[in-house]
Design goal:
The chain contains 8 helices and no strands. By secondary structure, it is mainly α. The chain has one domain. Helix 4 packs antiparallel against helix 5. The longest helix is centred in the first third of the chain and has 33 residues. The two termini are 52 Å apart.
Length: 184
């Protein structure tokens, strides 16, 4: 009974922990979408200002970086960094959105923005998702933790010598001491 209960508890804890992966990815993806929207606004304003001066984005940044003023050079470099980050985040959002249930985790890990990831972790609120993805991760977590804990329990199981209970010995003695019936 102890083994069954322990394995059931371990499985449930594993399911609960594993279900947090899709929930964390969802909260990160929401933050990522918000960051993309804000960066898009900055880039759109920059493009509008460049167009009103008769330039495109690339020529406006080049003009900044070729300026003799160190402030404008740094501003041009900063704007290029902002545009690159916007592209990287947009690509990552599309990759996460297009990934299947179990390929989403590796895609998420491989392209996560470290600053955004840290901010997501700092405000993360655990929840148990009821989506198909959440249920799949929960089932996988249950099976993995149940199996691992079962192996650990089996390593520490005491080996008891086999013996017959007193009732069984008594029954065996009665069978042996019974007189045999004669065939008539």
């Amino acid at each position: 009974m102890f083994r069954f209960t322990s394995l059931l508890i371990a499985g449930c804890v594993g399911a609960m922990i594993a279900s947090q992966a899709p929930e964390f990815m969802q909260q990160y993806k929401q933050r990522l979408g918000g960051a993309i929207d804000e960066l898009a606004t900055v880039v759109r304003h920059f493009d509008r200002d460049a167009n009103s001066a008769g330039m495109d984005r690339a020529s406006a940044i080049e003009r900044y970086t070729r300026s003799g003023d160190s402030f404008f050079v740094r501003r041009g470099t900063s704007m290029q960094t902002t545009i690159d980050r916007w592209h990287d985040m947009s690509d990552h959002w599309r990759s996460i959105s297009g990934a299947s249930i179990f390929s989403r985790l590796p895609v998420f890990i491989s392209g996560a923005d470290s600053q955004l990831l840290k901010r997501t972790w700092n405000t993360y609120k655990p929840a148990i998702p009821t989506t198909l993805e959440g249920l799949a991760y929960s089932a996988a977590g249950f099976l993995v933790s149940h199996t691992i804990f079962g192996v650990i329990l089996s390593l520490f199981r005491r080996r008891r010598p086999r013996y017959h209970a007193p009732r069984e010995r008594y029954a065996e003695d009665r069978i042996r001491s019974r007189p045999r019936e004669r065939a008539s």
